[in-house]
C-alpha cells in the first residue's frame, strides 16, 4: 500500500517537469521558427545521417552486378536473395542468440550488483563511505582496453571461462559498474527520508526497507542503467573478439567476419549488416528516452 | 547500571548488524570490480616489467626496458600522435557542428521529435556495424562515395580514401564524426532545456539580437555541458579501437594505428605480453594525466558558475 502510494508521489513531479519542459520549448519558438533555410539545413543533416544506413538497407536488395554497374542507383529489380540467404543461414541466428544472452546476463549482473552497492552508499552513514564511492568514481577512468591483455589471460587461463557467455558477461558487468553506481547513488539518496522513518516505525529493518520500498521505487533508475549496460554489451567488440570463437560469436563479430570473408560480396555484406542493425535499432529507439536520460544524468552528475 | 549496560550491548550488536548489512550489499560489486577491473590493471603493470611470451612463470625481469622499447618504437609514438589528432579533431569539429544542430533542433520546427531521433541513430549503432557499412561506401572502385564525387567532377584518391596513407586518418576521423555527432547534439539539447526561459525573455525585451542571445546567454550557460561532453569525447578518443580495426586495421603503412590497436597487436598477435603491458600502462598514464589536467584547468571552473545556475534553476521550478 504505502509503496504504491509513494510510487504515485514519486512519479507526479517527473510528469510535471515533463510538461514544463514541453511548454518551454514551445515558448522558445518566439525566437524564429520554421524559416525555409532552417528546413534546408535540417534536410541536409538528415540526409547525411541516414544516407549511409539507407544505402546499406537498399544495397541488400540489389545484386553485386547492379552495385558494380551503378553504385548510386536504386535496386532494379529488387532482389530478396541476399536477405533470404542470411536469414536461412545458421550463423546469423546463432550470433543473435549469443549477443542476446550475453547482453541480458551483463545487464542483470550490472543492475543487481549496482543497486545493491548504491544502496548503502546512498542511505547508510558509515566511515569510509566517500572513500568507497571514490573507488567507483576512479573506476570510470579505467577503460577496459587498458586491462584487456591481463583480462584475456585471467578469463581464458585462470578461470577457464574462455569462449563462454558468462566469461564475457562478468568482465563487461564489472566495467559497467562504476557508471551504474554513480548514476544510481543520487537516485536512491533522493528517496524521501520520511519513507525510511515510517518503515522503521513499522518495525521494518533496513534490508526490508531495501526490498519493499527502495527496489520498487528505483525502477526508473534501474531501467536507465540497465539500458546503458545492455547497449554497451550489445555493441561491444574488443572483449568478445579476444574471448569468443566460432559458434559463440556475437553479432558485431559476425558482421566483421562476414565482411572480411565475403569482401567481394558487397550486397551480401549490406544484407547481413542491415539485419544485424534491426534488433539494435528497434530496441534503442524504443528506449531512446532512457538512454538519453541516463547519458545526460551521467553528464550532470 | 544494568539499563546502561544493556543499552551499550544493544548499540554494539546494532553496529555490527549495520556493518554486516553494508558488507552484504557492497561485497558482490566490490568483488566483481576487484577481480575483473583492479586485478587485471595491477597485472598489466606487473607484466610491463617482464619479458613474457604468454606461458611459464614470470622470471625474465627486464625493469623498464619494455617501456624504452615501446617509447622508442616509431609505430607507438605515431599511435600517440594519431590518438591526439582524433581527440583534437573530434572536439574541434563536433563542438561547433553539434552546437549549431542543437540550436537548430531547439527551434519550433515541424518534425522536431523525428529529427532528434534520426540524429541519434548513428550513435546507437555498434561501431563495428557503422564501420563495415562505411568501409563498403568508401571502396575505391564500386563505393558510392567515389561514384557521387566523380559524378560531380571531383577527383578521388586512386587507392581509395582508406588506402592513402595521407588521407586514411582523416577519413577515420570523418566517419567517427558521423558516428558520434548525435551524442553531442543530444547532450547539448538536454543542456539547452536547463537554460531558464526568463533569461531569453528578458534579453528579447532588451532588444538583443539572436546571435547576442546565444553568445551571452546560451553558450555560457551551456558551458558545463560542453566541458563534460568534451571530457567524455576525449576519454573515448584515447581508447579508440573498434572503428580503426574495422576500417583500416591500423594501416596503410601504420598511418592509422592507435595506442589500443598497438597493444592488441603486440599482446594477442605477437604474444609480446610485456610490451603490451608497458603500452597499456602508458595509455593509462596518458589518459590519467589528460583527465587530471582537464579537471584542474577546465572542469574546475564549473564549480563556481554551477552554483549560480543551480540556484536559478531552483527558482524557476518554484
TrEMBL record, chain A:
<protein>
    <submittedName>
        <fullName>Sugar ABC transporter permease</fullName>
    </submittedName>
</protein>
<keyword id="KW-0472">Membrane</keyword>
<keyword id="KW-1133">Transmembrane helix</keyword>
<feature type="transmembrane region" description="Helical">
    <location>
        <begin position="165"/>
        <end position="188"/>
    </location>
</feature>
<keyword id="KW-0813">Transport</keyword>
<dbReference type="InterPro" id="IPR000515">
    <property type="entry name" value="MetI-like"/>
</dbReference>
<feature type="transmembrane region" description="Helical">
    <location>
        <begin position="36"/>
        <end position="58"/>
    </location>
</feature>
<feature type="region of interest" description="Disordered">
    <location>
        <begin position="1"/>
        <end position="30"/>
    </location>
</feature>
<comment type="similarity">
    <text>Belongs to the binding-protein-dependent transport system permease family.</text>
</comment>
<keyword id="KW-0812">Transmembrane</keyword>
<dbReference type="GO" id="GO:0055085">
    <property type="term" value="P:transmembrane transport"/>
</dbReference>
<keyword id="KW-1003">Cell membrane</keyword>
<feature type="domain" description="ABC transmembrane type-1">
    <location>
        <begin position="96"/>
        <end position="287"/>
    </location>
</feature>
<dbReference type="GO" id="GO:0005886">
    <property type="term" value="C:plasma membrane"/>
</dbReference>
<feature type="transmembrane region" description="Helical">
    <location>
        <begin position="131"/>
        <end position="153"/>
    </location>
</feature>
<feature type="transmembrane region" description="Helical">
    <location>
        <begin position="95"/>
        <end position="119"/>
    </location>
</feature>
<feature type="transmembrane region" description="Helical">
    <location>
        <begin position="209"/>
        <end position="234"/>
    </location>
</feature>
<dbReference type="Pfam" id="PF00528">
    <property type="entry name" value="BPD_transp_1"/>
</dbReference>
<dbReference type="InterPro" id="IPR035906">
    <property type="entry name" value="MetI-like_sf"/>
</dbReference>
<feature type="transmembrane region" description="Helical">
    <location>
        <begin position="267"/>
        <end position="286"/>
    </location>
</feature>
UniProtKB/TrEMBL annotation, chain B:
<keyword id="KW-1133">Transmembrane helix</keyword>
<feature type="domain" description="ABC transmembrane type-1">
    <location>
        <begin position="80"/>
        <end position="294"/>
    </location>
</feature>
<protein>
    <submittedName>
        <fullName>Sugar ABC transporter permease</fullName>
    </submittedName>
</protein>
<dbReference type="InterPro" id="IPR000515">
    <property type="entry name" value="MetI-like"/>
</dbReference>
<dbReference type="InterPro" id="IPR051393">
    <property type="entry name" value="ABC_transporter_permease"/>
</dbReference>
<dbReference type="GO" id="GO:0055085">
    <property type="term" value="P:transmembrane transport"/>
</dbReference>
<feature type="transmembrane region" description="Helical">
    <location>
        <begin position="273"/>
        <end position="294"/>
    </location>
</feature>
<feature type="transmembrane region" description="Helical">
    <location>
        <begin position="20"/>
        <end position="42"/>
    </location>
</feature>
<feature type="transmembrane region" description="Helical">
    <location>
        <begin position="167"/>
        <end position="190"/>
    </location>
</feature>
<dbReference type="InterPro" id="IPR035906">
    <property type="entry name" value="MetI-like_sf"/>
</dbReference>
<keyword id="KW-1003">Cell membrane</keyword>
<keyword id="KW-0472">Membrane</keyword>
<dbReference type="Pfam" id="PF00528">
    <property type="entry name" value="BPD_transp_1"/>
</dbReference>
<feature type="transmembrane region" description="Helical">
    <location>
        <begin position="117"/>
        <end position="137"/>
    </location>
</feature>
<feature type="transmembrane region" description="Helical">
    <location>
        <begin position="229"/>
        <end position="253"/>
    </location>
</feature>
<keyword id="KW-0812">Transmembrane</keyword>
<keyword id="KW-0813">Transport</keyword>
<dbReference type="GO" id="GO:0005886">
    <property type="term" value="C:plasma membrane"/>
</dbReference>
<feature type="transmembrane region" description="Helical">
    <location>
        <begin position="80"/>
        <end position="105"/>
    </location>
</feature>
<comment type="similarity">
    <text>Belongs to the binding-protein-dependent transport system permease family.</text>
</comment>
Amino acid at each position: 500500500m504505502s509503496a504504491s502510494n509513494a510510487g504515485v508521489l514519486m512519479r507526479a513531479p517527473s510528469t510535471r517537469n515533463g510538461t514544463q519542459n514541453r511548454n518551454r520549448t514551445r515558448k522558445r519558438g518566439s525566437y524564429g521558427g520554421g524559416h525555409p533555410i532552417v528546413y534546408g539545413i535540417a534536410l541536409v543533416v538528415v540526409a547525411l545521417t541516414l544516407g549511409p544506413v539507407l544505402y546499406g538497407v537498399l544495397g541488400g536488395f540489389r545484386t553485386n552486378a547492379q552495385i558494380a554497374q551503378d553504385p548510386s542507383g536504386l535496386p532494379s529489380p529488387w532482389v530478396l536473395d541476399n536477405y533470404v540467404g542470411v536469414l536461412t543461414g545458421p550463423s546469423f541466428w546463432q550470433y543473435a542468440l549469443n549477443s542476446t544472452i550475453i547482453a541480458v546476463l551483463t545487464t542483470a549482473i550490472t543492475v543487481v550488483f549496482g543497486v545493491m552497492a548504491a544502496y548503502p552508499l546512498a542511505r547508510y552513514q558509515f566511515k569510509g563511505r566517500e572513500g568507497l564511492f571514490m573507488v567507483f568514481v576512479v573506476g570510470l577512468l579505467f577503460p577496459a582496453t587498458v586491462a584487456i591483455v591481463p583480462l584475456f589471460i585471467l578469463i581464458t587461463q585462470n578461470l577457464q571461462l574462455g569462449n563462454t557467455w558468462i566469461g564475457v558477461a562478468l568482465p563487461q558487468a564489472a566495467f559497467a559498474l562504476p557508471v551504474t553506481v554513480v548514476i544510481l547513488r543520487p537516485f536512491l539518496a533522493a528517496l524521501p527520508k520520511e519513507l525510511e522513518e515510517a518503515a522503521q516505525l513499522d518495525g521494518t529493518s533496513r534490508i526490508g526497507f531495501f526490498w519493499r520500498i527502495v527496489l520498487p521505487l528505483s525502477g526508473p533508475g534501474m531501467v536507465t542503467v540497465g539500458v546503458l549496460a545492455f547497449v554497451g554489451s550489445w555493441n561491444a567488440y574488443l572483449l568478445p573478439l579476444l574471448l569468443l570463437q566460432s559458434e559463440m560469436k556475437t553479432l558485431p563479430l559476425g558482421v566483421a567476419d562476414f565482411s572480411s570473408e565475403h569482401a567481394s560480396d558487397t550486397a551480401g555484406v549490406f544484407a547481413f549488416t542491415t539485419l544485424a542493425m534491426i534488433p539494435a535499432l528497434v530496441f534503442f529507439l524504443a528506449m531512446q528516452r532512457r538512454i538519453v536520460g541516463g547519458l545526460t544524468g551521467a553528464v550532470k552528475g | 547500571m544494568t539499563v546502561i549496560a544493556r543499552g551499550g550491548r544493544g548499540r554494539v550488536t546494532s553496529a555490527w548488524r549495520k556493518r554486516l548489512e553494508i558488507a552484504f550489499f557492497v561485497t558482490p560489486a566490490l568483488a566483481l570490480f576487484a577481480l575483473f577491473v583492479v586485478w587485471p590493471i595491477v597485472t598489466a603493470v606487473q607484466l610491463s616489467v617482464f619479458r613474457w611470451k604468454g606461458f611459464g612463470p614470470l622470471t625474465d625481469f627486464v625493469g623498464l626496458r619494455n617501456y624504452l622499447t615501446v617509447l622508442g618504437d616509431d609505430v607507438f609514438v605515431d599511435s600517440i600522435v594519431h590518438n591526439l589528432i582524433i581527440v583534437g579533431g573530434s572536439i574541434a569539429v563536433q563542438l561547433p557542428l553539434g552546437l549549431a544542430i542543437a540550436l537548430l533542433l531547439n527551434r519550433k520546427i515541424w518534425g522536431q521529435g523525428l529529427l532528434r531521433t534520426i540524429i541519434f541513430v548513428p550513435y546507437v549503432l555498434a561501431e563495428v556495424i557503422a564501420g563495415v557499412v562505411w568501409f563498403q561506401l568508401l571502396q575505391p572502385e564500386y563505393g558510392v562515395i567515389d561514384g557521387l564525387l566523380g559524378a560531380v567532377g571531383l577527383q578521388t584518391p586512386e587507392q581509395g580514401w582508406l588506402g592513402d596513407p595521407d588521407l586514411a586518418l582523416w577519413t577515420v576521423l570523418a566517419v567517427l564524426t558521423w558516428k558520434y555527432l548525435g551524442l553531442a547534439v543530444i547532450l547539448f539539447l538536454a543542456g539547452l532545456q536547463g537554460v531558464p526561459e526568463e533569461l531569453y525573455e528578458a534579453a528579447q525585451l532588451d532588444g538583443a539580437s539572436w546571435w547576442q542571445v546565444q553568445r551571452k546567454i546560451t553558450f555560457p550557460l551551456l558551458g558545463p555541458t560542453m566541458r563534460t561532453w568534451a571530457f567524455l569525447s576525449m576519454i573515448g578518443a584515447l581508447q579508440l579501437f573498434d572503428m580503426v580495426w574495422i576500417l583500416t586495421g591500423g594501416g596503410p603503412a601504420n598511418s592509422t594505428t592507435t595506442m589500443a590497436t598497438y597493444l592488441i597487436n603486440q599482446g594477442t598477435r605477437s604474444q609480446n605480453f610485456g610490451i603490451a603491458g608497458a603500452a597499456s600502462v602508458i595509455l593509462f598514464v596518458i589518459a590519467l594525466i589528460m583527465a587530471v589536467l582537464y579537471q584542474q584547468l577546465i572542469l574546475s571552473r564549473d564549480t563556481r558558475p554551477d552554483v549560480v545556475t543551480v540556484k536559478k534553476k531552483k527558482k524557476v521550478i518554484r
